[in-house]
Design goal:
This protein is α/β, with parallel strands linked by helices and about 300 residues long. It has 2 domains: about 150 residues, Rossmann fold; about 140 residues, N-(1-d-carboxylethyl)-l-norvaline Dehydrogenase, domain 2 (Orthogonal Bundle). It is built from 14 helices and 7 strands. The protein has a 7-stranded mixed sheet, with helices on both faces. α7 packs parallel to α9, α7 packs across α13 and α13 runs antiparallel to α14. The chain is globular. The termini are far apart. About 50% of the residues are buried. 1,3-dihydroxyacetonephosphate binds next to α7, α9 and α10.
Amino acid sequence: MNDFKTIAIVGAGAWGQALARLARDRHHQVKLWSRRGIYPLAEVVEPAEIIISAVSMKGVRSVAQQIQALSLSPHTIFVTATKGLDPEKAETPSQIWQSFFPRHPIVVLAGPNLSKEIQQGLPCATTVASTHLEAAETVQRVLSSPQFRVYTNADPLGVELGGTLKNVLAIAAGACDGLQLGTNAKAALLTRGLTEMIRIGTYWGAQAETFYGLSGLGDMLATCNSPLSRNYQLGYQLAQGKTLDEILAKLEGTAEGANTAGVLIRLASEQNIPIPISYQVNRLLQGEITAREAVTELMLRDIKPE
Ligand SMILES: NC(=O)C1=CN([C@@H]2O[C@H](COP(=O)(O)OP(=O)(O)OC[C@H]3O[C@@H](n4cnc5c(N)ncnc54)[C@H](O)[C@@H]3O)[C@@H](O)[C@H]2O)C=CC1
Ligand SMILES: O=C(CO)COP(=O)(O)O
């Protein structure tokens, strides 16, 4: 069977370009759209059998709106690879895509996928998740290669939240390393961070076991330990005393955790869900506290069972 697809990738940043490389390596016909690029959006997305979105969170709603005005095949599959939460309605990217395209299958793609390593040709794995299993399997077949091992999953919300919530924890991990707090502290931070992700994710309807997979624990291990992660870099530099504005002005690309933290804390406090590490990350980002003070706050919380 000829399984070569016409694929549109919207968002030509670090992740969009890495995904384009993976898809081209599989000999699919790939067109990349960016708001500053040469191709009109219609020319890129209208012929596509699969539309992959790698725009950063702040662009998702407007790009989905622009695509809604175009003429697509009813069978077009959407794949969302963005990791973030919409500040306006607190929706995930896949919920936004689904609201604009209620009849199309939406697949979430997330995992430990640092784009620079992918661009170097290094191997990695990811998860594609959807309530529409056939669509997830199509995307799995289309993107799988000796460099990119793709697993399917039936919990898109869990997969999406894993990728999104760990960005906030990667800021904490960067700060932990920036303060040189040691391996024990880092292990405690990540383990309790995972508990936090599971607590909020399951409250919102995701399955706990999903967070032990590639898009949860897997992506935490990658981003919380790598200077290639922009979120980690952000935390590391905050710990060195730089301001958020100074860091963002020089950071290459998007650190979604900086925006996710505020939405996350707002929702968690409305819903009475304790997420102390993310809470301190948000205070650090707001300039309300230093990284060292955040550590003290976390260490001196009421003692309790694990
Ligand atoms: N770079 C990476 O290693 C990975 C990134 N991601 C996620 O993918 C998303 C994009 O990340 P990167 O490509 O690294 O960021 P980036 O900053 O390199 O690129 C972001 C892209 O979004 C576009 N964009 C932003 N606002 C827009 C708007 N209003 N309208 C149209 N386009 C808009 C930009 O033009 C750019 O092409 C983020 O949510 C990130 O968390 C996920 C996995 C890996
Ligand atoms: O999500 C990522 C890798 O899976 C990329 O992490 P950063 O956005 O922190 O660079």
